[in-house]
User: Fold Pyruvate dehydrogenase E1 component alpha subunit from Conexibacter arvalis.
Amino acid sequence: MVLIRLFEEEVERQYKRARIGGYCHLASGQEGATVGAVHSMRDEDLLFSSYRTHGLALAKGVDPDEVMGELFGREGGSAHGRGGSMHLLDYSKGYLGGWGIVAGQLPLAAGAALEISYKDKRAAVMCEMGDAATNMGAWHEALNLAAIWDLPLVTVVFNNKYGMGTSVEKASGEPDLYKRAAAFRMHGERVDGQDVEAVLEASERLLEMAREERKPSVLEIITYRYRGHSVADAGTAYRTQEEMEEWKKRDPIVLFRERLVEEGRATAADLDAIDKRVEERVVQSVEAAEASPEPPVSSLAQHLYGDPESAEQFSRMGPGSPFGERELVLEGLGR
Ligand SMILES: Cc1ncc(C[n+]2csc(CCOP(=O)(O)OP(=O)(O)O)c2C)c(N)n1
Ligand SMILES: [Mg+2]
Assistant:
């Protein structure tokens, strides 16, 4: 949780220095939800997420150097600088992205869960999404399939009270989002996202249910993002100062820290040592990103088509050419 918090604070600094481009969505305040949900995943379990990616990728074990490298658009990034903040991806770690279309990750996650089920593997898929994604058609389609096909899918809804500037109450016919699982006769439950251990207990149990009993579920995690929707939004037009301050009193890192010390599970010195180690790790990730080269422009079209021959079927969708893209793509394909 501390790594995610400090990493994202650094991301914001680097963004403001224009060393990170494109969109950038921070999740400070949501670390308990993130770590609680992902920590109990096994290597063979797959994670899909929305565009609020950084913490989820780090929690799934993606190397901080590669996350920062991706944000810097460098070759050393986990998606070789092609994805950026919203499209982090690391297949080797079971993190299948980072998706910018709200709820777009849900059908993909259901498909991955179908593969697991079809091949009879002992694994599960977790699909993280925001509260607003539960109002999209893809939610209903994907959950319905998960229910009728008994897919090992844990759908995790990070309910941070807002989709951009619209509150859950304004946007949702049933604002108790976990209850929507009942529409698919699926297990649904709600947990306090500021209590990392409560989230951990629930996610562990639901992942196990998916792996062993092939039962999909919905886990609604109540949490709060301290910052605006993205770095372009101050986050103050649609919520009050009092509300924001109330939430900060239940900061997941502070709460867990206090509990660990009170219960004698760690000393303040142990926790300070973690903070120090993490600070150094974050600095190191920026250094690694800076040292990594930018991908050459000539490689822009790489990975668009697995096999140059298969480009044939996309011939009617050839790239436009005001800036010479056509030449670039065909050159990239070795044509
Ligand atoms: C299909 C689609 N519609 C609209 C958008 C624009 N958009 C991006 S994020 C967002 C709000 C999503 O809110 P929520 O699901 O609660 O996630 P949060 O940002 O709170 O993590 C919207 C409307 C989009 N990316 N995709
Ligand atoms: Mg939201």
